[in-house]
């Protein structure tokens, strides 16, 4: 099979990731062969796309590939087809979404850390200046920006105005649990919180429009921020679902199509 040779290294990497993710989520034991099944079904999906649309699938290791596979998933007969294979195709797609996000997260996490550090360093004078600038600040439905290079690493830019406005809206509170208090920041005398893009910047390639808008930025105490990234399967699922429910209706206004299933896959909750 041509695609098997063409995508061999990516499929091997995806297979290892799928196995690891299944263990992390408590779905299988360490001796499972689920990763191999996922890799095989992912390969089948690329072939299925080519047969249906009579065109080359193209590179596999990209969010463009995920979009193509999701076109197949949305076809009329896919539900029956998927059910006959015990839902392995849909599970494979969700896992592939998590795989692509995890790889890109490594490149974007430095920008996230830098953003939170810069926001934490703002003095009262800095905040007054930004607050004045925000009055003239508009970011609705901006096209996806170009990546910028910082310390030999490319990532999408984050606007401090966008994230600072998110802090104002939440009144410097943890949006997962507003009773969570941290400490009073030396820089500005306010309760310390961190910002987090609910639809991760790591999946910006999936979308035409920017993900760096205030409705997509949530404020969390450091503990809840780590929970969203590193918590158990169930804790992350509960937290992410709650945060999306609180603002789900706002995304279409910014040209962003998102639902619970897709968002959870971005976080590796599949």
TrEMBL record:
Annotated keywords: Endonuclease, Hydrolase, Nuclease
Q: Which GO terms describe its molecular function?
A: endonuclease activity
Organism domain of life? Bacteria
Ranges for domain HNH come to 191-229
Q: Does the keyword NADP apply?
A: no
CDD domains, per the entry = HNHc (cd00085)
Segments spanning the bilayer are: none
Q: Which InterPro entries match?
A: HNH, HNH_nuc
Hydrolase among keywords? yes
Which source organism?
Answer: Enterococcus alishanensis
Q: What is this protein called?
A: HNH endonuclease
